[in-house]
């Protein structure tokens, strides 16, 4: 959960410290930084020991490495490793090594593996680092200083991409923006992947197809609703000019079908169902998060909104969740903050980029608009 982003004054921060959690939030990080070279050398030595019985797949990003039942290329494929997948050595051979990665154990060709002591150097160049919060509530600051302004608060067990770090501070990306956290309260490590079994890969494909099927059904349902509304409407119906900047809206009495623009926005969004979720991502096809999804979809129709869900929750005009229409934004959260946004498509449904979607590791999917209790809704398309 990301607690709603805000500029916090010293007074507000002091008050927050009394009700949030204590010590870790207010604790000052170490003042004296170790020499960078010494710190890096220590980290490298620890890493080499840590990877003593490990291997990492070094195939191209566009390829996968087969894990086979026996040490030959004719043997059954049990699973696959992507570039950066970490495995534990079960038995090392001259040409093939038996490894365990994720739920898969089998043989992998040595030519496509990085072994033990070489992993640290490979990881430093090729594997992203993440910071996992180890305290109940942690402050993210504008600069790497305990005196810097607090820009947001993050919660225990949340994980964020590390942009850079020194011995005391890590620069992280939170909801599309960057800030600094004390390394006393985060666990920084490489984000290694795991192998997937053929059963898992098949299940992922089926889940993606199912998500796409639901998207088609949602589009068909919307089309039927549109036809019914159109056949019974009068000259008060919307007439689109084709321009993203000049449109007239239909009366609120038109119900969930919304404006013609809203329906087109919803239909456009639905074509991306089944595509992957990626925190901080901005690609509708290769990976995007919830607020990036709503921002990119609306941008297609000439509407410019903020990048974060908390900021989007103050744009446009407020509408009741009982009077939603296609194209409206629906917001969800907890603890008084906003942490998720979805696009209403009509028929009591939303389309959104979710990190808990059936498609592994999240994806763009269609859900009931009230699968969680909405915090609020905003209308961007007037």
Write up this protein.
Helices cover 25% and strands 31% of the residues. It is an alpha+beta fold. The chain has three domains: 2-32 and 128-182, Roll (SH3 type barrels), CATH 2.30.30; 48-125, SH3 Domains (SH3 type barrels); 196-227 and 253-379, Alpha-Beta Complex (endopeptidase fold (from Nostoc punctiforme)). Strand 13 (169-174) and strand 14 form a beta hairpin. Helix 5 (198-231) packs antiparallel against helix 6 (260-270). The two termini are 31 Å apart. The model is unreliable at 1-33 and 233-257 (pLDDT under 50).
Q: Short description, anyone?
A:
The protein is of the alpha+beta class and 382 residues long.
* Secondary-structure arrangement, i.e. CATH architecture of the largest domain: Alpha-Beta Complex
What is the tally of helical segments?
Answer: 8
CATH topology of the largest domain: endopeptidase fold (from Nostoc punctiforme)
Largest sheet, in brief, is:
6 strands, antiparallel
Q: Can you count the beta strands?
A: 24
Q: How would you classify the helix and strand content by structural class?
A: alpha+beta
Describe the strand arrangement of the main beta sheet, using strand numbers: 19-24-20-21-22-23
What is the helical fraction, as a range of percent? 25-40%
**Gyration radius, in Å:** 25 Å
- Supply the number of structural domains: 3
CATH class of the largest domain: Alpha Beta
Distance between the termini: 31 Å
CATH superfamily of the largest domain: endopeptidase domain like (from Nostoc punctiforme)
Could you tell me the mean pLDDT?
80
The low-confidence parts are: 1-33, 233-257
Strand content: 25-35%
* Anisotropy-based shape: flat
């Amino acid at each position: 959960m990301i607690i709603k982003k805000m500029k916090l004054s010293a007074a507000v921060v002091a008050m927050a410290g009394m009700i949030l959690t204590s010590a870790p939030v207010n604790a000052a990080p170490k003042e004296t930084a170790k020499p960078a070279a010494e710190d890096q050398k220590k980290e490298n030595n620890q890493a080499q020991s840590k990877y003593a019985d490990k291997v990492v797949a070094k195939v191209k990003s566009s390829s996968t490495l087969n894990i086979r039942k026996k040490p030959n290329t004719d043997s059954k494929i049990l699973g696959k490793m992507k570039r950066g997948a970490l495995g534990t050595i079960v038995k090392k051979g001259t040409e093939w090594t038996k490894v365990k990665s994720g739920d898969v154990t089998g043989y992998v060709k040595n030519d496509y593996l990085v072994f033990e002591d070489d992993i640290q150097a490979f990881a430093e160049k090729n594997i992203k680092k993440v910071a996992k919060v180890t305290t109940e509530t942690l402050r993210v600051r504008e600069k790497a200083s305990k005196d810097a302004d607090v820009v947001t608060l993050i919660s225990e067990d949340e994980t964020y991409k590390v942009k850079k770090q020194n011995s005391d501070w890590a620069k992280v990306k939170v909801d599309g923006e960057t800030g600094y956290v004390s390394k006393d309260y985060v666990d920084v490590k490489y984000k290694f992947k795991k192998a997937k079994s053929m059963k898992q890969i098949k299940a992922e494909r089926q889940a993606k197809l199912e998500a796409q099927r639901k998207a088609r059904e949602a589009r068909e349902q919307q089309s039927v609703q549109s036809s019914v509304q159109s056949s019974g409407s009068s000259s008060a119906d919307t007439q689109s000019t084709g321009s993203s900047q000049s449109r007239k809206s239909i009366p609120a009495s038109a119900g969930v079908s919304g404006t013609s623009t809203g329906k087109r926005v919803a239909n456009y969004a639905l074509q991306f169902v089944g595509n992957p979720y990626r925190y901080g991502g901005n690609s509708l096809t290769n990976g995007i998060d919830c607020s990036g999804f709503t921002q990119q979809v609306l941008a297609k129709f000439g509407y410019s909104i903020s990048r974060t869900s908390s900021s989007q929750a103050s744009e446009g005009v407020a509408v009741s969740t009982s009077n939603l229409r296609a194209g409206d934004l629906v917001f969800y959260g907890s603890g008084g903050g906003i942490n998720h946004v979805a696009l209403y498509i009509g028929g009591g449904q939303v389309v959104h980029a979710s990190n808990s979607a059936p498609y592994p590791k999240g994806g763009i999917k269609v859900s009931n608009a009230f699968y969680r209790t909405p915090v609020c809704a905003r209308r961007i398309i007037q």
